[in-house]
Amino acid sequence: MTTTDTVRPSLTATELAAVRADFPLLGRTVRGGRPLVYLDSAATSQKPNVVLEAEVDFYEQRNAAVHRGAHQLAEEATEAFEDARAAVAAFVGADEGEIVWTPGATAALNLVAYAFSNATAGRGGAAAERFRLAPGDEIVVTEAEHHANLVPWQELCARTGAVLRWFGVDDDGRIDLSDVDRVVTDRTRVVAFGHVSNVTGALAPVAELVAAARRVGALTVLDACQSVPHLPVDLPALGVDFAAFSAHKMLGPTGVGALYGRRELLEAMPPVTTGGSMVEVVTMAETTYAPPPQRFEAGTQMVAQAVGMGVAAQWLGELGMDRVAQHERELATELVRVGEIPGVRIVGPADTRDRLAVVSFVVDGVHAHDVGQVLDDRGIAVRVGHHCAQPLHRRFGVAATARASASVYTTAEEIAQFREALAGVRAFFGVD
Amino acid sequence: MSSLEQMYQQVILDHAKRPHGHGLVDAPADHRSGESHQVNPTCGDEITLRVDVDGSTVAGVSWEGQGCSISQASASVMTELVTGHDLADVARLDAVFHDLMSSRGKGLDDDDALDALGDASAFTGVSQYPARIKCALLGWAALKDSLARSGALS
Question: Which residues of A are catalytically annotated?
């Protein structure tokens, strides 16, 4: 985690009200006229007017295919597309050449996994040696991963003969580094981990994991979906080799995300999806490929969505991610207080150290689905289920949890309403 | 009654707390038997259901599983409802229950059909909530599959 040294104050009540007024959806009611209390931002965030307007404006004024065409619209569309890339890059401290547009974070993680696969199959020439796996090589993940940062690595292992290994988590859901030297070995080629758990909200020990990977020459892949929208994140400063994040969790549109890769690695990595726009010279027999990032952007891109993602990054940047983080730290303090409600047990850290405003919990005697339904009746939207992290739920011996998660537009009053509603759930089901 | 109370009717809460048919039972050797495991991947609900068919009659249904009150209560109500019934009746009940679940909270016009469902008619309120319909149908899906596996339908 990278934060500025001087902590600026959180958002004032006036600023927060102005922020909320910028999100049209937050003004609607649900379930018979109840004001919406949206506590499902870890699944997807709501969108401010500037993002919605940017997409409409692109279609109304600039829509054209990018990186081709000699007309003015094509120039303007290309400029908007590349300006958005620069905005997203700046938001995470990267150079624009290090940001590849993808359909989302899942696609970004799969891109890296399939690049390893293609290199292992002999593609990419000598430059791709770092991506070539041999049977018995090891890929390391953690028990806390979202399926998007687990299943692609399982599949890569199945295709290459590499072996999947993982760090367990402790009873607080934090990654257990006690056996780091046994998990990360001379055979380790990749260490892939989430920056912040989408279930527990716990921050990963990034510095320790990066150091362990570097000691053995392994590449690091960071799933930054749950951190980038909530913390100041400087990916080069974190020292990771690759990172994936999606627009829709950071106030941007669905259908677009980004893969960050250190430039020398993107240059050495063979392409994955092939076709138009990612080539240099094509003959009937063979093809040479464009330099990154275009090498990884085959086909017509999601231009309007990318523009929206750029605007979302700028909007957050102007508000100040240090202040967003401070606001959400206060919300996390309010959220973990669900642990004070009789019969409610937090899955993950019950304290506020190194955690974000995402809290999953079980209610004794009431299934998570039923908890969510009663909250929904009060207008409170939470996520229920395994949150795409079945192994972590299995680790805690539960099939499902309910999860409340905050974003920049969430208020402490909303969390108080949520706690009050949650306190009534066991009585509703006659559980004592 | 609010939508929430329509869904969580007392009869449903009672079945969820004290489900019928819970705990797998072996069928007698001279009966047909089939077993099915069904999962609702969105919420992790699971059921393993075993059916015991004597000739053309469902002689017994037993199951174990974990899940929300709707899935547990529905499996319980279904167990009570179909036990002792002829296979053709069970197919009809299955069809009527599916119709009820597709009714978006409106229920069924056919009062006789609704009467035939007994306690299962209490699930009308569930059909207002698209995300919960699968919960109510989990046990029924397991019954249908286990009947097919038992060979009793062929």
Answer: 388
Q: What is the ipTM of this complex?
A: 0.91
Per-residue model confidence (pLDDT) at position A237: 98
DSSP state of A195: S
Q: Which amino acid is at A83?
A: D
Q: Give the minimum alpha-carbon distance from A365 to chain B in angstroms, rounded to a whole number.
A: 10
Buried b (16+ CB within 10 A) or exposed e, A266-285: bebbbbbbeeebbbeeeeee
Give the chain B residue nearest A386 (alpha carbons). B43
B109: CATH: 3.90.1010.10
In CATH, what is the architecture of A53-317?
Answer: 3-Layer(aba) Sandwich (3.40)
Of A369, A390, A393, the CB nearest to B135: A369
The domain locations on chain A are 13-46+320-428, 53-317
User: Scanning every residue of chain B, which has its alpha carbon at the shortest distance from the alpha carbon of A390?
Assistant: B44
* Parent domain of B139: 3-150
| Residue A383, min C-alpha distance to chain B (Å) | 10
Number of domains in chain B: 1
Distance from the Cα of A336 to chain B's closest Cα (Å) equals 23
Query: Quick check: B67 and A369 CB within 8 A?
Result: yes
Cα separation, B98 vs B21, in Å, equals: 21
Q: Is A32 on the interface with B (CB under 8 A)?
A: yes
- CA pair distance B14, B8, nearest whole angstrom: 10
Q: Which of B70, B82, B87, B79 has its CA nearest to residue B24?
A: B79
Give percent above pLDDT 90 in chain B.
86
pLDDT of res. A48: 98
Chain B positions touching chain A (beta carbons under 8 Å): 2-4, 7-8, 13, 17, 42-46, 66-70, 129, 132, 135
A386 close contact with B: CB closer than 8 A: yes
The amino acid at B45: D
Contacts 24+ apart (CB under 8 A), A331-340: A331/A357, A331/A406, A331/A410, A331/A412, A331/A415, A332/A201, A332/A356, A332/A357, A332/A359, A332/A406, A334/A412, A334/A415, A334/A416, A334/A419, A335/A359, A335/A404, A335/A406, A335/A415, A337/A419, A338/A404, A338/A418, A338/A419, A338/A422
Q: What is the pLDDT of residue B1?
A: 74
| Residues A106 and A148 sit within 8 Å (Cβ to Cβ) | yes
- Which of B8, B13, B43 is nearest residue A400 as measured by Cβ atoms? B43
pLDDT value at residue A6: 65
Q: Tell me, what DSSP letter sits at residue B50?
A: E
Q: What is the pLDDT of residue B42?
A: 76
Contact A369 B4 (CB under 8 A): no
Query: Domain A13-46+320-428 falls in which CATH fold?
Result: Aspartate Aminotransferase, domain 1 (3.90.1150)
Kindly give the parts of chain A with pLDDT less than 50: 1, 3-4
